[in-house]
Amino acid sequence: MHYGKLFTNIKEMAANCPVRNYMDDQNIQWKEGKPDYTQVNEKYLKERSRKHPVDSIEKLVENLVKTWEMESSHKKREKDWQSVERDTFRISVNGGRQFTLKDNIEIGNYNILMWDSPLYQAKEETNISSHKLFRQAMPGGFAWEVLEVFSGPPKVSFTWRHWGKWEGKYKDSDPTGEDLELTGSCVAVVNGDLKIVSIEVFYDPNPMIAKLMKVKKCPM
Q: Do 158 and 148 meet the contact criterion of CB atoms below 8 Å apart?
């Protein structure tokens, strides 16, 4: 066995693996236990389309957003959140309603991100049920990456890609095994401590939801 090459590969994977901060405090109250990102990290490392240097602005933005996603998906209490400026944080999608941190915790990031989609009934899902729905549909993980960053702090503009393989049931739809992908852009304002003040997301979720619902024509 070529141990030198093996150790080099391990070191490279560790250096490029996503960093999600603020997970180790023993007092954190998790919604369903502390999350394990091993599987989705492996998918990200294997299938990402960009390989950003560890010290790049792209990697910084990617890790910050992944930290927000971790807190958004798994933390129960506002005081446990460290990625955002808690009193002023707002998130909106395609110029729509602005949601607060309290909304983010209660409603959930999936529901917020598809709040106005005609094919996804966000108001009928809870934070937890929405995550179970997509974890069941994509049991191999739903990976996320930054594509390009166009401006640095305090107003960060970037594009992103979100992808997975449809291998599990989505509601009444049986899986097809096809690859699913979302792309979009985002403008995030951060403060001097790199805490997120606001996030504006721009993308179209309907083509992916149409595939999952097996709807042949997306509504306008």
A: yes
Predicted confidence (pLDDT) at residue 26 exceeds the cutoff of 90? yes
Q: How many helices (H) and strands (E) does the chain have?
A: 7, 5
Q: Which of 109, 32, 34 is nearest to 69 (CA)?
A: 109
pLDDT digits (tens, 9 = 90+) for 54-78: 999 999 999 999 999 999 999 999 9
CATH code of domain 36-213:
3.10.450.50
For the question of whether the overall pTM of this predicted structure is more than 0.85, the answer is: yes
In the chain, where the domains are located: 36-213
Summarised one tens digit per residue, pLDDT across range 183-202 is: 999 999 999 999 999 999 99
Q: How far apart are CA 187 and CA 149, in angstroms?
A: 10
φ, ψ (nearest 5 deg) of residue 63? -70, -35
Q: How far apart are CA 213 and CA 147, in angstroms?
A: 28
Instruction: Give dist(CA 5, CA 36) in Å, integer.
Output: 27
- Strand 179-190's sheet: what is its strand order? 90-93, 196-203, 179-190, 155-165, 143-151
